[in-house]
Design goal:
This protein is an all-alpha fold. The chain is 73% helix and 0% strand. The chain has ten helices and no strands.
Length: 199
């Protein structure tokens, strides 16, 4: 189990920051990237992210930090958290194409489709909710100090990324998205009653 925790920790201490940075870059300058085009955008972004990945891998031991040991109670909590995470993943995967999952609509001139059905009628950003639950579950399984620090440090850029994505969606869909913002909560579903999105 120690080896599994270690390798999962190493993978996430590299992939996590790269994923956050990728989406921050995409959403911060979405209009500019669209003007550049898909190929040029990736030619600009991917080499820098690859170099950063190599750097993170080089300092992986320092980033992961002290091993707090295998804690089966925490692993039990993590496994319970996996159920809502997997359920959310299955819900939004039904509605999203692979191109949407990697950010193609943000980088193309096409407006795309505003999703308001299924899980997107309950929360506007189920991917953020799923990612948050997943990162917490992984941190509890891995149980290294550096992963807990990363989890805390990821909250502010994650919130900023959400704000930037909302801005970009308003830019793309205008009043239709503003109405959607009023009708459907951002990340956490309403606890009382079902809310149906009106067209």
């Amino acid at each position: 189990m120690e080896h599994i925790r270690y390798f999962v920790g190493i993978a996430m201490i590299i992939v996590g920051p790269l994923g956050l940075l990728y989406w921050l870059i995409i959403h911060s300058w979405a209009r500019w990237w669209r003007a550049c085009g898909l190929i040029r955008t990736y030619l600009v972004i991917l080499p820098g992210l690859s170099a950063l990945g190599v750097l993170l891998f080089h300092y992986r031991e320092q980033l992961l930090g002290r091993d707090l040991g295998t804690n089966w109670s925490l692993i039990g909590v993590a496994l319970v958290l996996c159920f809502p995470m997997i359920w959310l993943e299955l819900q939004y995967w039904r509605q999203l194409s692979v191109s949407t999952l990697v950010g193609i609509p943000e980088l193309s001139q096409r407006k795309g489709t505003l999703l308001r059905e299924g899980i997107y009628g309950v929360v506007r950003h189920p991917r953020y909710l799923s990612a948050g639950i997943g990162l917490l579950a992984e941190a509890l399984i891995v149980n290294y100090v550096g992963f807990y620090i990363f989890l805390l440090l990821a909250v502010p850029p994650g919130c900023l990324m959400l704000v930037l994505e909302e801005r970009e969606l308003v830019d793309r869909f205008g009043d239709a998205y503003r109405k959607y913002q009023r009708d459907v909560p951002c990340i956490f579903p309403r606890l009382r009653g079902k809310h149906r999105v009106q067209d």
